[in-house]
Amino acid sequence: MTIAAAGVIPRLVEMLGPGSATDKQSNASASALAFLALNPWIAFAIAAAGAIPLLVQQLQPGSPAEMRRCAARALTIIARGSPAIGAAVAREMLVTGASF
């Protein structure tokens, strides 16, 4: 059974949402997604599960420093999955005014 088929990715993405987990759990989720996204096919599944806007949201000023670092690392690795995913990350950051 693959990671995607096991339903792990949606659960990790869900933990990125506001109020759905502690900061520590959210950081762990972002770190796990970064590791999984080293596989381009999984990076696509992560993006398709809606992780990009949630990770970009964690880059906003006022977010804890460790959360910002974990989100930035995850977005960087996810963006490397394909040019289309990289463009989606860039577009979301541009729309929200977020930066690393």
Approximately how much beta-strand content do the residues carry? under 5%
Average residue pLDDT: 91
CA radius of gyration: 12 Å
Total of helices: 6
**DSSP, total strands:** 0
* Main beta-sheet strand count, sense and barrel state: none
Structural class: mainly alpha
**SSE arrangement, N to C:** HHHHHH
Helix content: 55-70%
General form: globular
Which consecutive residue ranges, at least 5 long each, have pLDDT under 50?
Answer: none
Supply the key terms.
globular, 100 residues, mainly alpha, 6 helices
Structure description:
The chain has helices spanning 8-14, 23-36, 40-48, 51-57, 65-79, 83-96. Helix 2 runs parallel beside helix 5 and helix 5 (65-79) packs antiparallel against helix 6. Helix content is 66%, strand content 0%. By secondary structure, it is an all-alpha fold. 36% of the residues are buried. The longest helix is centred in the last third of the chain and has 15 residues, at 65-79. The chain is built from six helices and no strands.
Summarize the structure.
The chain has 100 residues and is mainly alpha-helical.
Topology:
Elements: H1 8-14, H2 23-36, H3 40-48, H4 51-57, H5 65-79, H6 83-96
Helix pairs in contact: 2-5, 4-6, 5-6
